[in-house]
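Severity: low
Component: inverse-folding endpoint
Summary: output formatting inconsistent between runs
Steps to reproduce: submit the following structure tokens with default settings.
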């Protein structure tokens, strides 16, 4: 077994920290500076026209609430192992968000959180993070399906036959999962997963669901209020159904966190194009959502990454 001297270990850890933070800053700069679809001149004209200290403050508060509910979800779930403070939960969530910025579907987030715990708890932390993200995805699907159905009823994007076929496929998949839940693949099965989930107290699950619902309502309505700020005058339910549809379909696509706004933006352009919203407005709002809810937390998370100690949390 090769023994690495402590000074070399410290240097390697520092190098990894700098690479993570440097890559995060580079990806953010590259996406903002080299996106030819962002017409900054139009944005500045509209901003000066509609600028409001209260309006800007309200949008920023929604960003804080969005991330706060995610932090509270994590604090709540980790309490299954041991209680952690809000400050500690904040550090773990924001640092792991930075680490997961340039990994597919934020997979680096799982490893980032696990580093704050003993190695023997790593699998449990990954599982809890899966629960944390899983409930958010389930809610995105539920709200998204209803939003898509409402939007389709108004604008007939897809035929009723296609809707019936899609529901049939979903029911078939649910049936397959139900009848194969006892089948083991490398020691894992759906039945075992359900048993593990049931080991967590119901009160923790219930709080997790409530916090996830609040988080969904916050970021979907932040999207909604940004459209209002950009002079998009559409009925509430039409706008919200389009937003929920965009989040549902965009979340179904594999992507990287730093490309999140591009994926959501491209899906949003299609839906809001049907509603007659200018493409540049949709792109700008998607970019602002990404900046407010990913970039700003990553900037704070970079501080925690640089100050991360290799010593495990006791």
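Observed output (run 2 of 3):
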């Amino acid at each position: 077994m090769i023994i690495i001297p402590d000074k070399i270990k410290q240097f390697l850890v520092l190098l990894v920290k700098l690479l993570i933070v440097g890559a995060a800053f580079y990806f953010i700069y590259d996406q903002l500076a080299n996106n030819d679809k962002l017409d900054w001149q139009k944005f500045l004209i509209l901003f000066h026209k509609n600028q409001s200290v209260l309006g800007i403050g309200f949008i920023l508060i929604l960003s804080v609430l969005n991330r706060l509910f995610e932090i509270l979800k994590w604090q709540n779930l980790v309490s299954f192992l041991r209680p952690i403070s809000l400050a500690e939960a904040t550090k773990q969530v924001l640092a792991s968000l930075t680490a997961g910025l340039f990994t597919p579907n934020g997979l680096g987030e799982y490893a980032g959180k696990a580093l704050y715990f003993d190695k023997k708890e790593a699998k449990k932390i990954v599982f809890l993070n899966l629960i944390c993200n899983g409930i958010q995805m389930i809610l995105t699907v539920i709200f998204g399906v209803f939003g898509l159905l409402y939007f389709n009823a108004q604008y007939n994007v897809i035929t009723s036959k296609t809707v019936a076929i899609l529901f049939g496929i979903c029911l078939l998949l649910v049936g397959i999962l139900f009848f194969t839940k006892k089948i083991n693949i490398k020691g894992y099965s759906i039945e075992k997963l359900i048993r593990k989930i049931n080991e967590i107290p119901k009160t923790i699950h219930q709080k997790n669901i409530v916090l996830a619902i609040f988080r969904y309502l916050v970021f979907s309505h932040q999207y909604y209020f940004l459209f209002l700020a950009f002079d998009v005058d559409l009925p509430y339910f039409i706008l919200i159904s389009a937003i929920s549809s965009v989040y549902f379909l965009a979340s179904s696509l594999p992507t990287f966190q730093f490309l999140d706004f591009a994926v959501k933006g491209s899906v949003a352009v299609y839906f809001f194009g049907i509603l007659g919203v200018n493409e540049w407005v949709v792109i700008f709002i998607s970019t602002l959502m990404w900046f407010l809810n990913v970039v700003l937390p990553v900037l704070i998370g970079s501080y925690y990454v640089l100050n991360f100690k290799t010593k495990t949390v006791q």
